[in-house]
Every structure is written in C-alpha cells, then in structure tokens.
Amino acid sequence: MKTSEEIIAGQAIYSRSVLSIYDIWVLGISNSFIWKCPSSRILSLFNQHVSANHLDVGVGTGYFLDRCKFPVANPRVALMDLNENSLHAAAARINRYKPETYKHNVLEPVTQSIASFDSISINYLFHCLPGPLSQKAVLLDYLHPLLNENGVLFGSTILQGDMTRGYPARKLMDIYNKKGIFSNTQDDLQSLQQSLSKRYREFGVEVQGCVALFWSKK
C-alpha cells in the first residue's frame, strides 16, 4: 500500500481553481470526447441506485448529487473526502440537503462514529488512488460497516488493461499518471470484478468507452 504522503499528494491537485473548471473539463469535454462515457450515463447510474440515506465518497464538485433524483424530497446526504476544497464545494452546491461532511482518507479505517447508509457512491475514485486496484480496493472493506444490509455501493472508474482507448485517451492517461493525478496503470476490468465479487453477494459491471460503471449489493 502507498504511503500517506502519496495519497495526500494525489488529492492536492483539487484546488479551488481546478474545481472551478472541473465540470467543464472532466464531466463535459473529457467524459464525452476522451473517455467516451458521457456524464449523462453516470447520472443514470446515480438515479438507478441512489437512496434517501446516501453517502458520497470522493465528492468532486457535487455535480451528480446536485442533479440526481433522490427518492424523497429531504434525503440524508453525507460527503466524505480527504480534500477540504472538494468538501466545501460539494457541500455548498447541495446546501439545500444540509449535508453531513467527513474529512477522511479512504485508504484508512473509518474511526468516526457515523450512522450507516442505504447507498454509497464512489465515482471516479479508484483511478485517483495510488497503487494497483487489487490493493486500493481495501477501501471497500473500510466502507463496508457504513453500508446497511441490502444496501448498494455503486460508482465508476477509468480503467486501462483491455479497455478500448483512442489516442487522446491513451495520451491524457499517460500524462495524468506521470503527474500523479491518476494511478491506474495496473487497473483492469478483471481486477475490478474480482474486488467486487470477493466482498459482495451480488454485483454488476458495465463498460462504456474506457469507463467501468459498477454496482454491488451487501
């Protein structure tokens, strides 16, 4: 497992200035034209699995929480991230839900006392964490106590391995990995499927472009 210094360095890229263009560059241009998985497809995943008692881990800007259709008007929504800029941005964006916020390194056990959830999302998180997917999937073990029985954990991640990647995707992925923004050179579909099958009684994975969209039931 990578050191805390590497984990902190990897999330430090998400400054206020970077977050200000995140929706346009990542969720708009990159998803549609480089990774070949439009954000509308990820939003559909949210709408399919999000519950009235939800935790979002690796919160970005709160884009999907802002747009998804919760099953009730006043859901319990919680945010978990190591980056305070992301927590503040997402919390402000969905302020209408009065979200709980938790600053936490997902590659360490959760020691805070937090009431469990019926759904947990980990969108675009795996590929930003250091190390091979088989190791960083330990975050699933740490989140497990926070998921109620029959609860659903879902999300998406950008893979390499046997994914179909055009030249722009290969080039940008190489740049991101060199800069430490991504760490997915050893992430492939088989590793993701194995990580989910070891921990959940039921799961599903779909691939669009070089993005894997997944869900798993406790």
TrEMBL record:
<keyword id="KW-0808">Transferase</keyword>
<keyword id="KW-0489">Methyltransferase</keyword>
<dbReference type="GO" id="GO:0032259">
    <property type="term" value="P:methylation"/>
</dbReference>
<protein>
    <submittedName>
        <fullName>Class I SAM-dependent methyltransferase</fullName>
        <ecNumber>2.1.-.-</ecNumber>
    </submittedName>
</protein>
<dbReference type="InterPro" id="IPR016584">
    <property type="entry name" value="MeTrfase_VrtF"/>
</dbReference>
<feature type="domain" description="Methyltransferase type 12">
    <location>
        <begin position="55"/>
        <end position="153"/>
    </location>
</feature>
<dbReference type="Pfam" id="PF08242">
    <property type="entry name" value="Methyltransf_12"/>
</dbReference>
<dbReference type="InterPro" id="IPR029063">
    <property type="entry name" value="SAM-dependent_MTases_sf"/>
</dbReference>
<dbReference type="GO" id="GO:0008168">
    <property type="term" value="F:methyltransferase activity"/>
</dbReference>
<dbReference type="InterPro" id="IPR013217">
    <property type="entry name" value="Methyltransf_12"/>
</dbReference>
